[in-house]
Amino acid sequence: MSRQKSSQRLQEIQNMLDAYAQEANQWAHFSKHDSAINAQTFVQILVLGWLKKKDGSLNELAHAARDLGLRVTGSALHERMGQAAVVLLAGVLKRTLEVLQKPCPLPLEVLKKFSGIYITDSTQIALPKQMVSIF
Questions:
Q1: Which residues 6+ apart lie within 8 Å of 56 measured at CB?
Q2: pLDDT for 5-52, tens place per residue?
Q3: pLDDT one-digit tens code per residue, 56-93
Q4: CA torsion through residues 100, 103, 106, 107, sign
């Protein structure tokens, strides 16, 4: 992927996360005022930081936040971790899944070329016990 397309895709992801975080914050009540770590920046820091390094520590996430033009500390992120953060992130995930699961119709003519289509999915994802009641 070219640098320009990559940069454009990153901007699209940031815009999506921003919009979904604003929606989820209306009922998650993660942030009530404008601060360095509001709902939108919190979601972007975590999602984009963990996309960069899947097992990044809070300090590494704080360092990744600099790419977003934010100066925060790992301890500041830790202070925001709580029930409201869980509800916020669950709301963003729910909205993202709703958008991604919209049907993408395939013209019937394309399918007529094949004698059969076999789909196999062996994906297994276990939820942590604490999240079973939420999902």
A1: 49, 50, 64
A2: 777 888 888 889 999 999 999 989 998 777 778 999 999 999 999 988
A3: 999 999 998 998 899 999 999 999 999 999 999 999 99
A4: negative
Q: What is the pLDDT of residues 37-46, one digit of tens each?
A: 899 999 999 9
pTM for the full predicted model: 0.71
Alpha helices in the chain (DSSP H): 3-28, 39-52, 58-65, 74-80, 83-100, 108-111
CA atoms within 13 A on the CB side of 86: 8
Contacts 24+ apart (CB under 8 A), 7-15: 10/48, 13/47, 13/48, 14/44, 14/48, 14/68
CA-based angle 47:51:52, to the nearest 5? 120
